[in-house]
Amino acid sequence: MAFDHRKYVPFTPVRKTDRRWPDQVIARAPLWCAVDLRDGNQALVKPMSVAQKQRMFDLLVKLGFKEIEIGFPAASQPDFDFCRKLIEEDRIPADVHIQVLTQARPELIERTYEALQGAQRAIVHVYNSTSTVQREQVFGLDRAGIRDIAVNGARLVKEHAARNPDVDWTFQYSPESFTGTELDFAAEVIDAVNDVWRPDQGQRVIINLPATVEMATPNVFADQVEWICDNIRYREHVSISVHTHNDRGCAVAAAELAVMAGADRVEGTLMGNGERTGNMDLVTMAMNLYSQGIDPTLDLSGMAEITDVVEACTEISTHPRHPYAGELVFTAFSGSHQDAIRKCLSQRKEGDTWNVAYLPIDPRDLGRRYEEVVRINSQSGKGGVAYVLERDYNISLPRWLQIEFSKAVQKEAEVNGGEIDSLTIHRLFEDRYLKVQAPWELRSYDLHRDDEGVVARVSVGAGEQAMNLEGRGLGAVEAVSAAIEAACGVSLAVEAYDEFALGEGTSANALACIRLAVNGEHTSAAALAEDTTSATLQALFSAVARVVGNSAAATAAASPEVADA
Ligand SMILES: CC(=O)SCCNC(=O)CCNC(=O)[C@H](O)C(C)(C)COP(=O)(O)OP(=O)(O)OC[C@H]1O[C@@H](n2cnc3c(N)ncnc32)[C@H](O)[C@@H]1OP(=O)(O)O
Ligand SMILES: CC(C)C(=O)C(=O)O
Ligand SMILES: [Mg+2]
């Protein structure tokens, strides 16, 4: 049977009665180590060229990484050459430690030190697998045999370093496949390595705990890390690092809980490239801290550059929903989200702490724009449509028109099946509400107020179709409505009416929106004009025109009473 869960065994939780990490809160960023150039690189279909490595290295330095694993120099010529290039061309800033990985094998350790000749400072990272499956099936060794590989490797690392005393050396040991290793055995091997390196005597040592394969829920990893912190010797003299992978999709969570459990340092890659489902994503974890008001100690403000470089070096594109970096992560299509974002953003004042529904961080912090936040498709509502018109065209619609117009947009989205861009929304609005039919185009008006109200004299249309209308009412709209009723023989009732002064950036200064019942038939229109009265009267004529059409204008124009009125 192909799909049979009984083939698998559940992970064993850590039996712990002194669990403290769940009560911890991360208050500062861990020390970061970027392993893009090693773990990320070894997972690529096409490993990076020296030029790509250089580009990635420069980006990592620019972002503020102080520890960068640059490769496995004993494994391949490009890795060796890149290490030499950085050293010989003096490309390593004084506050940056390069780190190199090697298996605990004499010839590889020797070659690793060859690659490091002339370095000012470096972290030599040696590893061997300690898990039961690796012991039993890969190495065919018992615990003592595996511990010996680690200890011999540690000795060689120390001896080679001693031959180059001018270099500021840091030693790092990883019990690779730590998550599949019994905790007491992991501690035994770590202690044995530290007995060689003697961090208590001033040697800088990093003990890196890898979730080489993520095998359990992140709380189990946190338990493992806390247990190791509590049970190894030399704890106060070593830096505890974690290196999580994403097999279960929880690499970031595991690293976060591990920091709560006592880890000082976190290894990972930008955007999480790495073996299988990837390494812990540094961008996500650092931005998670940032979104909590904690300085991530990395400058990720140029997110577009980060994704560009990562994509160019890994030849892997960024998922549009990648946390913080994806194209769609600051976009809302759904109506209720758009409505909430629009309301929160409109209340927000510069300098306020960030408190916007559906947007965990301010898109502008990562070089993104609010323009991208609201995009319209068939899932959108009136709030989103109104937001787009306001944002891009300075057009504010009254609520009743938002409701009416968004239905038209929705219909268009359903027909077209995808996204409706801002230009199309504006065109729809123009066609539906702003378009002026020539015979109903306002030419001039004269409003005269006397004791009984307002007398309106208006002229619409052009040439042969010009009409002069006159009417009386309590206000301008009522007077002009009366004029139209008289001229066209229709009955008008104004159901809603709003006018807005427009801000800078448009040729028009005013927008008027009106909804009428013409002979009982509902119709709406809007108009943009230099002044609010012109906008209002034009909106009124346009709304009437939508029901009576051009023929009525022609009839009215032919009537001498009307023309002379
Ligand atoms: C979890 C991780 O990411 S670990 C890092 C893994 N990265 C890589 O492997 C990428 C670079 N690696 C390579 O290019 C190659 O593996 C090399 C050049 C380092 C070594 O190549 P080879 O000498 O051909 O050996 P190979 O890769 O097959 O390794 C297997 C041998 O190394 C031994 N070995 C593997 N890891 C270790 C280790 N950490 N310490 C000591 N010995 C080890 C194995 O027991 C095996 O020994 P055997 O040949 O006696 O059975
Ligand atoms: C070499 C080690 C740290 C590693 O990459 C892993 O275990 O995943
Ligand atoms: Mg790894």
Q: What keyword list fits this structure?
A:
single chain; 565 residues; alpha/beta; TIM Barrel; Helix Hairpins; Arc Repressor Mutant; 4 domains; eight-stranded parallel β-barrel; three-stranded antiparallel beta sheet; 41% helix; elongated; disordered C terminus; binds acetyl coenzyme *A; binds 3-methyl-2-oxobutanoic acid; binds magnesium ion; metal-binding; 2-isopropylmalate synthase activity
Percent helix: 40-55%
Bound molecules: acetyl coenzyme *A, 3-methyl-2-oxobutanoic acid, magnesium ion
> What low-confidence regions span 5 or more consecutive residues with pLDDT below 50?
560-565
Number of strands: 14
Question: Class by helix and strand content?
Answer: alpha/beta
Q: Beta fraction of the residues? A: 15-25%
Which fold name fills CATH's third level, the topology of the largest domain?
TIM Barrel
Number of domains: 4
Subunit structure: Homodimer.
Keywords: Amino-acid biosynthesis, Branched-chain amino acid biosynthesis, Cytoplasm, Leucine biosynthesis, Magnesium, Metal-binding, Transferase
Function: Catalyzes the condensation of the acetyl group of acetyl-CoA with 3-methyl-2-oxobutanoate (2-ketoisovalerate) to form 3-carboxy-3-hydroxy-4-methylpentanoate (2-isopropylmalate).
Catalytic activity: 3-methyl-2-oxobutanoate + acetyl-CoA + H2O = (2S)-2-isopropylmalate + CoA + H(+)
SSE map:
Blueprint: E1 31-34, H1 36-42, H2 50-63, E2 67-71, H3 77-88, E3 97-103, H4 106-115, E4 121-129, H5 132-139, H6 143-162, E5 168-176, H7 183-197, E6 204-211, H8 218-231, E7 238-244, H9 251-260, E8 265-268, H10 282-290, H11 303-314, H12 335-347, H13 382-393, H14 399-416, H15 422-434, E9 442-450, E10 453-460, E11 467-473, H16 476-488, E12 492-501, E13 510-518, E14 521-529, H17 532-558, H18 560-564
Parallel strand pairs: 1-2, 1-8, 2-3, 3-4, 4-5, 5-6, 6-7, 7-8
Antiparallel strand pairs: 9-10, 10-11, 12-13, 13-14
The structure holds acetyl coenzyme *A, 3-methyl-2-oxobutanoic acid and magnesium ion (MG).
